[in-house]
Every structure is written in C-alpha cells, then in structure tokens.
Amino acid sequence: HSAGLHYPGASVPAYSTFCCLSGDEQDLNERLKRLYPAVNEEETPLPRSWSPKDKYSYIGLSQNNLRVHYKGHGKNHKDAASVRATHPIPAACGIYYFEVKIVSKGRDGYMGIGLSAQGVNMNRLPGWDKHSYGYHGDDGHSFCSSGTGHPYGPTFTTGDVIGCCVNLINNTCFYTKNGISLGVAFTDLPPNLYPTVGLQTPGEIVDANFGQQPFVFDIEDYMSEWRAKIHGMIARFPIGDRLGEWQAVLQNMVSSYLVHHGYCATATSFARATQTMIQEDQTSIKNRQRIQKLVLAGRVGEAIEATQQLYPGLLERNPNLLFVLKCRQFVEMVNGTDSEVRCLAIRSPKSQDSYPGSPNLSPRHGASNPHLHTGGTESPTCSNGVTPLKSKNRSSIKYPSASSSASSSTSSSPSSINYSESNSSDSTKSQPRSANSTQETRWETLEKKPNIYIYILYIDSEMEIEAEHYSNGVVDGSSARIMNGTYKHEEILQPDDNSVDEECSNGRQLCGGNQAATERMIQFGRELQALNEQLCREYGKNAAHKKMLQDAFSLLAYSDPWNCPVGQQLDPTQRESLCSALNSAILESQNLPKHPPLMLALGQATACVQLMARVRSGSCSFARVDNFLH
Amino acid sequence: MQEVTATSRHYVDRLFDPDPQKVLQGVIDMKNAVIGNNKQKANLIVLGAVPRLLYLLQQSSSGLDLRTECAVVLGSLAMGTENNIKSLVDCHIIPALLQGLLSPELIFIEACLRCLRTVFISPVTPVQLLYTVSILFFLFSVFTSDHQTVLFNHSAVQHIAPLLISPSYKVRMQALKCFSVLAYENTQVSMTLVNVLVDGEPLSQVFVRMMQRDQPVEMQLTAAKCLTFMCRAGAIQTEESCIVLKTLPCLVRMCSKDHLLEERVDGAETLAYLIEPDVELQRIASTTDHLVAMLADYFKYPSSVSAITDIKRLDHDLKHAHELRQAAFKLYASLGSNDEDIRKKITDTENMMDRIVSGLSESSIKVRLAAVRCLHSLSRSVQQLRTSFHDHAVWKPLMKLLQNAPDDVLIMASSTLCNLLLEFSPSKEPILESGVIELLCSLTQSDSPALRINGIWALMNMAFQADQKVKVEIVGCLGTEQLFRLLSDPDNSVLMKTLGLLRNLLSTRPHIDQIMSSHGKQIMQAVTLILEAEQSIEVKEQTLCILANIADGNTAKDLIMTNDDMLQKIKYYMSHSSVKLQLAATFCISNLIWNEEDGSQERQDKLRELGFVDVLHKLSQASDPNLSDRAKTAMQQYLA
C-alpha cells in the first residue's frame, strides 16, 4: 500500500526550474515588489514557498519547498493532507495571486487548492473546516468552510494550471484555470489567510508559483482595473457641498505653501488670480526667503546675522537652533563657503602665490558645487549696502573679541573683493600677510597637515571633553594618530607635493585653501566649543549637540574632508533640513503655522495609507500617495 | 460691386502680413465678414484666399489659434454655393484637413472635422475622392461590403492605422471603430490587418492593449470586436492567446452586471459571434466567470425595483429589455451548439426552459428568432429532448411559431421541429396529433432550399416507424406529384431526404403493400428515373434500398417481378464497382427469392432463368465479407 510513496515524481519536469538560484531569487523579489508595492515586507512578509513546519506528515516538499507530493496511504478522506505557505497574505497586497500547476493527478486527483487560517487542521483538504476555503479538482466544486461543496468550475487534472486570486479590497476570491477566470468562488473572507494546498491520493504532485515565474493569468491587468476603480473613487469622492468652500480650502493650501517657502512673487500672483489674501506681509516673506537662500548657499554666518537683525530675540529664545546653526557655520567654513572664510579665501595671497593661475578660487569651485556658485554670484554681501551694516552688527554682537583684522577688513571694504577676484592681486596679497605676520610661519608649516588642526582645537578646549573625545568614535582614531602615530607620522610628513596634487585635482581645499580663513575657522571652533559648554551649564548635557560638534570637528582629522567617513556633512543637501527648521522657527515666532497645511495633509494621507495596511484595508495598495504626486 | 471687391482684397492682403498677431486678427475679421454672405465668400475665393488659408493651416509655426481660425473660415466658405466647395476641393483642402486630424489639439481637430463634414455632405464632392480619404468613416456610420472593398482598395488601412496611437482619445476611438467596420466579415481586409504594424507593433497587439481593463469600456469593447471579426474572417487562429486569453475574457466581462445595458448587449452578441463555430471556445466561455449564470440576469429587466422607484430607469430598462433577451438567447445558442455538458448547464439554469418558451411567443421578432435559435441549439441533445423539452412542452409554442412566421424564424423553427420529431423524442406523439403534416408539406413547396430540406426532413423523421395512418396521411397530403418534384430537386440534400422519406414510408410489409397498391406505378417510375440518371452513389444506394423494401412486400413484389427492365437494372448493380450498390441490389434479390413466402418458387425459377444464380455465386466469393455473406444467404434460399 505504500506504492504511492515512491511515485516517480522526480521524472516529471518541474514547473519551476532552479538552474540559477540567485538570479531567480532576484527575479522573484523584483516581481513581488512590482506586484505588491505597498507591502512592507519587514512588517508583513509575502509567501514565497510552502512551510516545512506547517504541514501534515503525509505531505512531502521538494524543489525549494515549492513542489508538494502526497506520501500517505490515500485510502479515504481521513488520509487527506494539507500544507500552508510560510506567511499569510498581507492586506497591503490589495490583490494577491498565486498559481499551482498540477504535475500529476496521481491515483484519483483529489486535490484541493485554496486558503486557510493559521491553526486549521492539516489532516484535511482545504475548504472542509471553518476558516478554510478550497476548489477541488475531482468534481470542480468549491468548498466554503464546509464538508459539502457547491458546483463552481470545471474539473482539473494533470497539466492544468490553477490560480487563486484573493481580492483584499472586497474580501472575495476567484480561481483561474489555464489563465481563464472562473468567477467569484468565495465572499466575506476573513483576514490573514495562508495559501494552502491539499492532496489525498498517492502520486498527486503539484508545483506552486508565488511569483517565481510569470503567471499564466494576466493578474496585472486585473490589478489595473482595480487601480483605476479606486482612483476613480478618490477622484469622485463627494466633498462639502457648500458653494466655494472646498475651493477656498484648496486655494488656501496652495497659497500657504507658497508663502511658507517664500515664493513671494508666485504667491502674490496666485493671490491676485484667486482674489484671496496672503496671511503674511510681503516684506516678511521676502526676508524669510533671503535667509533661506543664505542657508542654502552655505552662508550660514550671514543667515544668522540676518535673522538676528530681522527677528531680534528669536535665536536667543532658541539656543538649540542657534547652536545647530553655528555648527553648520563651522562646517561651511571647512567647506570654504561661509562668507567669513570665503572673503578671506578669495583674497588669499598664499594660494595665489603658491599656485599661480590655479583655479582654486575661480569658477571651478562653483562648477563643482552649484549651490555655492549661486551663492557667490548672487552674493549681496560684497556688493550692496545692506551687508556692511550687518557685518558691523555681527562684529559687535557676535564676535566682539574674535574680530580679526582680516575679517574686519573684509567687511569694511566689500566692493574690493569682487574687484580683486577678477584682477591679479599684487597689492592686496601683501595686506593680510603683514597683518597676520606673527602667525604666518606657524600656519605655513601646518597648513598641509590638516589633521593637526583638530589637535590644536582640542588642546585649547577643556580636558574633560578631550578625554571623552578619545574614548569614542571616528574622531578618536584620528586624534590618536596625532598623539602616537608611528606610521601615521608618515602621513603627516608626507611631501607637500603629493597633497598639493591631490587637492588641486579635487579643486577643493580646507577653508578654500586660505591660511587666514583656516585660522578664523579654528577660532570659530573654539567659540563653538565654548557655546556648547555654556549651553551644557545652562540646560544640561545634550547628546545630540555633542555628537554634532564632534562630527563637525572630525572633518579636520582628514586630509581630504570631502572624502572621509564624516564628509557627508559637507554635502550642500545637508543644508535643507536646517533651512526648513530655521524657517519654521521664524514662522512660529510670527504666530504662523510651523508647517504648511499642504505638507501636513500630505503627511496625514501617507500615514493614513500606512494605517490602512495595518487595519487590513486592501485598497491601500491602490491609493498610494505617490501615485498622485508628480 | 467695386467696393465689395476692394474690402475683400483688404481681407486677403492682411493674410500676408508679416506680424502673426495681425494675421490672426485678419482671419478673425474675415470669419465675421463671410458668415452668411455668399457674395463675400465667392469674392474671397476668387481673390485666392483659400491657398493662403490652407498654407497657414498647415504651418505648425502658425500657432493653434490661427490654425483653428483658418479651419473655421474654410468651413464657412464650404457652407456657401456648390462652386465654393468645388474650388475648395480643387485646392486640395481634404488632405490638408485630414493631416490636421493628427494634431494633438482637440479644438483644432474639431474645427477640421466640422469643415470636412461640410465638404463631404455636399453632392458635388466626387465620390471617388471620398474614398481615397480614409477618415470619413467618422461621418458615415453604415457600411456595406462594397464600401469596405472600395475603402480597402484606397488603402484606408494604411491611413487609419497611425491614428490608433493618436494622443487624442476621440481620434483613437474613431479609428478603432473604422477597423471594426472594415474587418466585419471581410477576409481580405482582415488578412491585411494582421500584417499591419503601427509604430513597429502588430495591429493585433495594439488592439490587445486597448482591451486592457483600465481602458474605457467603449474602447475595450470595440477592440474586442476588431479581434473577433479578424478571427471569424480566419485571419487569427481561434487558439491564439490574443483570442483565448484576451478577447474572449474581455467579452465575457462586458456581459457582467457592472456594465451598461447597451454594452452588455453588444458584448453578448459579439461573444456569440466569436464562439459560434468553435467548440473549444464554447467550452472556455462556458467556464469563464460563471457566464451561463450571468446571462440569466439578462431576463430580469425591467426589474421590479426600477418599476417602483424610478420612472426614467423603468423606461430605459424597458427599451433594452428585448435587446438583452435576444442577446442572451443568441449567446446561449452559440454556447450550446456542440457540447452536451454545456447544454445541460444551460437548461439547469434557473427557469431557463420557461424563458425560452415565453421567448418563442414574444412580440419582438428579434427575440422570437433568438429564442428559437437557442431552442434549436439545445434540441441537438438527445437527453434534453427526452427530459426538459418534454417537461416544458416546448412543441406547443414552437408549433404556434410556425404559423405565418417570416422565413428566418421558420427555418430555425422547422429545423428544431425536425429534432423534436426524432423517434426517441417524447414530443413526437403530441406533435403528430397536432396536425403538423399539412404545414410541413407546404414547407416542401417553399422557394427556400433550407425550408424545403427542413420540411422533407421533418416528414422523413415523422414517417420513421410510424403508424400506417400517419403514413397514408403523409402520402395523401404531400401528393405524388410533389414527391416527384422533390425527387428532381436541384438541391441534392432535398433529394436524399425525400428518398429517406420513401424508405421510411415503405417499411413493414402491410404498409409496403398498401402504399404500393395505391402509388406503385408512380413510385416504380421514379425509381427507374433515378437509377437511369446521373446520380451520386449515395442517391442510387438509397434508391436501391427503396427497391429492396418494395421487394419485401407481399403483393408489391410483383411490381418488380413483372418489370424485366427493372430486374436487368438490379442485375447490373449487383456487378457494379461500388460495394455499397452491390450490397443494396443483392438485398433486393434476396427479398424476392425468400423461401417462406407465397410464390417464392416461381420467382426463384424466373430469376434463375435470368442468370441471377450465377451472379450470386460469383458474389459469394467476393472479398467484402458483408457482400459474400449476403450472397451466400440468398443462395441458400435455392437449396432449401
């Protein structure tokens, strides 16, 4: 009676062949991603094979747990055996589909294909018990949680491909036979069903396709119909019937968005066209826009000044924001984009001397960095009358003790910068050199060894911080290098030419390659350090601040900060979050919404769709927010 | 007059202004000037405004507004006298306007279309030209196959195909409709279509894309029609996936409740047409999306709900109720035309037989015809004849339908009747009693060969193993004259069925003698005529079988025995090259010499004299076992 155990299943060609597993695996992942884009597999994994743990003992699995064969006696219905897939069908699929090919109908072809919930008896065919559903090959009947079937479709046998489609939007299921839909089999399905097959007589073999192969039935076409249906539902969703109310809401959404981001001209013409009011006055919008532009251009110092001038007390009330801004300013100094170092760098006699005709200060800088370029060309600092005022402000308020001769000369003669930029600078180059003559030699020796800077920075700061600094992180290693580097020594003592070549080829140098600027940066770093300590004293330790400061200082530990583990900070895109935080703070101080209602609505919609997936509403699959964003 | 020309001149001059803004204003002014002013129109045409307007219309640099206004002015000019239209056509306005239809701008397309319509409505536009241009089919909805051919010969296909990928939905849709009209029952067009490429893609694939489920229903349905027509014309095989996996499921979907009543009618009729000749497609369709059950819903209009709640809806439902029913009957007829299981599925559908029965007596002729087609399709099943047909007494409304029905209904109804008169059909008795013979006899006199066949076929079935009374009635009603006329019918199948009828009439000895005693002379004449004529083997075999039946009678035998000429003919066929004829002739002789009957000795003697024994002896050694057996049995009659 055990003949069935040795049914020659292996000689039958497999539905899925696995000549190149990794390639197939990749195909499977891609196909599943395309079919079920809304499914988050970390929360709800998709079924990919039959479960070797969730099956009756008369079931044998092979071919990567995709092939199922019967190995029981098959005397009567008590010998029926089922297997479930590894995972239940996630609701976020919207529409889920799998196919089963009948490799052999065995002795009697008592095969059932369907769905069952976790825990349903596996010594049965799918459909016979509560929370179990099946379509049986011998009579073509459907079994809906009952021992008696209903006439449903044709019978199926060896060679047929049976598909099972679960519609999680209306909780129905239909089957397909050889690519033809047989119509709805079950309605009101419960959630969390597993793909299930059951066999009952010796020799029965079936292969599953959970997406490993293209399906015989065109499931994507079926999905497209539902996508269109749901999009149509959304488009036709009934809205408030009071005349003009909805329109007013939409106009306000658009208008407030434009205002929020400071698109002043667009907002004004939009308001004119729609005959609506703008909540904020135009100068205020323009001011915010200017500050945002400065931040995005990397000219954080100027942005801070402008903020302090236009919104007095704002940053004082937000010391954390001020700290973050200053950290960014430091990073931009390293980048050579902050106006303080930029003005110095442009006039830098050192670089002009060392590399005559080198494009260090020329548009190449800008070309490699569009943000920077824009900032440079639009630069109001150096060409209009407002800036000198601001700069004076700055030097008096912000850096009363630190104002160096270099920076003050910059701010007092802004017009000369543009001039010197375009001309050869025989007169200007001597000026800062004489002014900084005492420090000159020191920087001369150090300038090509930037990792020294960090040392200097820390030596001047408190020991406590230094000690902490040694105990962790990236910076730790780099500091250690300086302290006891044997082979690091070589790096430090590398011939200048090498690093010169390197820097030249990158077109980027620390603080724009200017010595005075570097000096200013170090000084600024110390102030920043001091600010941090002050904040610690007043508000207690702030881990985020500490990390930020360390990351910023760590830039100095590398000869090429742009290509180092913390170099990401120098990317201009990093300015965006800071820019919007500053913008929000300003708006909040003016009693305006911190976030534009449009973004709130968008965030809310996105969260809703995610929530829909969790509460098992299948339509979330076709109501994704990004379908509506262009 | 002078003054009018001067202002007209001014209008034309402005069309040549270098400033496009001024040109636009000029065209707009011209538009306002020509409205309703035939003289102005004529003047402008004489002054050469048309070529300039056409030039501006064709330049993409002209801008949308200007091009649209040009088309409007041209349309306005076309509204004038017939001479105007002639001038416009002479300036090649049509190709320019057609080119304009390819534009992505709907407003411009509409202006071009409006102008085109004005031009084509005119009787002066040469018909030949009308066909050269593919597009007009927007404007003409009814086509004959002549139209198709003319259009085809003027390379309509090549012109319309690119419009299928036009950015405008309306244009795509119209082009698609053109193809559905062109391909309908036209092998030549269909064969060409399969080889057409649109932007590198085969036309059938373009149609398949148009059937995608997220496309508008109208487009899905029309694309499915195109593929259906191409398939029925033999250009696409029925087993190809674009038919089995795309067209068929698409049409089944169209039958679902989700769609408009018009779409459901169209879907069902197209599907019926698609699957009509192919049993495999019938099987697939019968299992797709519960189609058989889905169609039952077509009979539920107007629904009781709509009657109460919504007058407008009731009106709508009523209008479509007939269409829905006839479409469902048609599709059931196609579905059930070959497969016994499908027929069972159909008759098992709720109230199906009742619906057919009431459909047979509906006021709408379309519904009656479709219902009887459905009944005919189901009547091919022995099982259904024995069960549901009898239970529902379908013969009654069928008999009623046969009275004064138009030919197409009559053909279907009489064909169904043939099946109901088969000997195993329980309906045969009541039908006989209802006095159908006269009706059937009158059918045999019809001009339509199909009706003549059905009439004689039904009589043949009726005479099979029938009572003597029935047989006498048939012969009496039909009349020998009509019988002979049918035996010389130009249609071979009519002749065969008539011989079949004679054979059935001449069975069992008392019947043979009775009929031969009254009509023996005429029948013998007819048999002689056929055996002497150039006829197929089958016809002659039937005739010899009739003769064998006559030879089985008691008194009827004499009609052969006294006819030496006939005996010679039998002898001739016993040595014929066709075994079938040899066998039938031998049968005849065997009946004549059968022992236990009166006068068998005399007949044996006579036939021996005529040399039949030698022939039988020879045949007893024939290679065909049936023939040699038959000959040996006959020989034994002599020995006993």
TrEMBL record, chain A:
It comes from Gouania willdenowi. Residues 28-215 form the B30.2/SPRY domain. Residues 349-361, 376-386, 431-440 have a biased composition (Polar residues). Residues 396-430 have a biased composition (Low complexity). InterPro entries: B30.2/SPRY, B30.2/SPRY_sf, ConA-like_dom_sf, CRA_dom, CTLH/CRA, CTLH_C, LisH, SPRY_dom. It comes from the Eukaryota. This is Ran-binding protein 10. Residues 349-442 are annotated as: Disordered. Belongs to the RANBP9/10 family. SUPFAM superfamilies: Concanavalin A-like lectins/glucanases (SSF49899). Residues 284-341 form the CTLH domain.
Automatic annotation (TrEMBL), chain B:
InterPro entries: ARM-like, ARM-type_fold, Armadillo, ARMC8/Vid28. Gene3D superfamilies: Leucine-rich Repeat Variant. Keywords: Cytoplasm, Nucleus, Repeat. One of its GO terms (biological process) is proteasome-mediated ubiquitin-dependent protein catabolic process. GO terms for cellular component: cytoplasm; GID complex; nucleus. It is found in: Cytoplasm; Nucleus. ARM repeats lie at residues 48-84, 478-520. This is Armadillo repeat-containing protein 8. It comes from Gouania willdenowi (Blunt-snouted clingfish). The gene is armc8.
